[in-house]
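Board notes (copied after class):
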Amino acid sequence: MIVDTSIKELENSSVALTVTVGTEAVEKDYQAALKKYASTIQIKGFRKGKAPVSVLEGKFGKAIREESGFNTIEEALKEAIEKVEEKHKPLSFSVPVLQDEEGLLPFEANKDVTFTVHYDVMPSFDLPQYKGLELTIPKVKVDEAVIDAEIQQLLQQNAMIIDKDGEAAMGDIATVDYVELDEEGDEVAGTERKEFTFTLGSGTNFYQFDEDMVGMKVDEERSISKTYSEDSTVEGYAGQTIQLRVKLLSLRYRDVPVLDDEFAQDVKDEYKTVDDLMSATREKLQKALEEQIEGVKFTTLSDKLIEMTPIAIPQSMIDFEAEQSWRRYLRQLGLGEEQVMEFMNFRGQSRDEMLKPMKEQAEKTLRLQLIMDKVKETEKFEVDEDEVLKVLDEQASGVSDEDQLASYRTMIEDDMRFSKVGPFLLEQNTFIEGEEVPYAAFMDGSYNA
């Protein structure tokens, strides 16, 4: 069928595949199409299936040749793709697009048909240096202040909440009614809050009147004048002075336990003394830090490898990965796409706007996956035969088809080899400590901000 093919590499990991189908194959397909229609088409003056081919051609030849021509192209494309090199085969989610379709028409008798399709292929790139790099990560330590902060949090978590007599002080838990007043002393509609509970000093009430409540007693009502600075964070009130009416409904305080051996024993039976508790806390914090450091090492190295490796990621690959992320997001929400989009449209957001950050992350993720996959192929990691058989038995239990078992085995071995890439890269590169970063900021990632 095919008399010639050629491949031209285009930008962004796509190719142009040009195929020429010989006259003989084109005409054979056309004659087969004529024969099929000759047996089914009813033409006036002839019994069904008895009209001469010449009459059929006269009335429908152009349409039949066009249909036959595109069927020929479709079959030739399948054949051509099977024969191209692996690196030029289309991605599973990239549909070949026929170029200049109108220019192919009309198909002429006894002539070759040459057509071109564009599609995306797996990106080709060279690995950068991925061993022997020196990278800087933050310096972090578990010092006494970090341990003390953790212990204090533990004490607060075990505090008892007790009703308080007397005056309100910072740190107390207050339940209040409050409302904003206008210049005439009337309530401003929509500003009233009933039985609002917060901790004095937390700043979690909208008007931030924590300090103004110090000294109040239960059932006391107080008029408060609040003047906000020009850089105030209270939205819409910067530079203004307002009046509030606040009534204290209840007052409580946290009865924080004493840090002693008895408290340590209450936390966990195996702790007998405060020293036991402190030692276990240090160990827990250190373990968490080491796990976080490993993650930061890998992220730092990954970012460096991505920076060093130009890869033309095809748009179809990015779009596919972003769509997968979108589906996972919907599953996490437990909602259908229509429900989510109805809410997003209400907020003035489109689907494209929702997908934009997902596409940006997808491109970064794909770059790293491609680099790691190439490292896997380059290093040719070995896998443990017993472990492969164990996983195969777990995942393919009940499968008897030999081809299917072989496919499962190949996937399992590939996954095992890929899982070795991350640890290998960390072992083969050097990480030096740079600027010191507070423990809390390092653990929550805010030090990068």
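Comment from the instructor: The chain has a mean pLDDT of 92. DSSP finds twelve helices and eleven strands in the chain.
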